[in-house]
Design goal:
The chain is mostly helical and 412 residues long. The chain has 18 helices and no strands.
Length: 412
Amino acid sequence: MASPPDSTPAPPTPTVSLAVLASATFSSAASVRVSDPLLPQVAASFGATAGEASSVITAFTLAYGLMQIFYGSAGDRLGKVRLIAITTLLSAAGSLACALAPSLWALTVARFATAAVACAIIPLSFAWIGDVIPYAKRQPVLARFISGQIMGMIFGQVAGGILGDSLGWRWVFGILAIGYVVAGLALLLRLRVDPLTRLRSGTGQPGLAGLVRSWRDTIGLLRDPWVRVVLAAVGAEGFLFFGAFAYVGNELRHRFGIDYTIVGVAMAAYGGGGLVYTANVARLVMVLGERGLARIGGLLLGLSFVALSFAPSLWTAVIAIAVCGLGFYMLHNTLQTHGTQMAPAARGAGVAAFATALFFGQSVGVALAAPVVDHIGVVPVFLVAAAGLPVTGLFLAASLRRAPQASRLSPR
């Protein structure tokens, strides 16, 4: 006899807790981008060259990418929101140390330490959403949630230039510290009042031995072919997109002779394109489906980098940057959704592996592009991204036909 259909209503979306988590991701995303426009000021403050001062960016990116893998398993066992609250407050301490740093070396160490804890916030937030939001509703929720992340990127790029010019670079890090404190305290309050924030998904041995075993299990995720597909796609996306996009601001400054504040404002168009996506995500998912989002997102990215290669004016470049943001989030949000679903039994570890693949691809892409940019120029790098990103979108769209049934949202 057939079982009757399940009439249990879907649990309500924890809107307030999501908003508080978004405030923490705002600060984390702002931390990633804030050093770029501050670099000349930091160099002048310590009597260093721009190359020497860039150690603050290198240290942050290195720690942000390497440390993510350790937080996934810890979040599964200790509770994701609890660990986010702890790392958010530790990030406040790290940002304050940046503001008070007496030397370039001290600032570099403080940035490394800040990244080592701030890197947990975004992937664990995505993993928690995967735990509490049914898959059929998850992509629109994730897309709206990343508005906080996008606004943080915009704040880091714009405020780093404007506030740095008016108040000085130390005050920028001080403001970041205040943002982290407010978000961390709000998360502690949500842990008291929202039972969903206290969920844990880990089992087995407690303590260090259990964490070591969980980290081994994370590596074991690579035995799953679908996990390998998702990680390969996001690694390629990070390599191609960020390997090229990292040099857009520098190219704008040299091609059009604009100052750092205008560079920051122009780069914020990327976040504007992302916000266009988040505002229309439900309609886009309904009309295009996941495979359509991957294909068209990759195509838009390809066209944007072609336009950036030959943009004759600043306004043309700004429009291309905005389309870049729209295309990136169409492709990346689809990957993010599957990143939360590729290992449901160890979701924190799975999302941490996803984030590590993204940042590893980014680091390799930026490093390999550097000598090309220095000796030939940025156009070849942009054109490689223009060719590779549509292929990445097509690869993902084709792979989604073979995705596990539980990971499918749309037959398109």
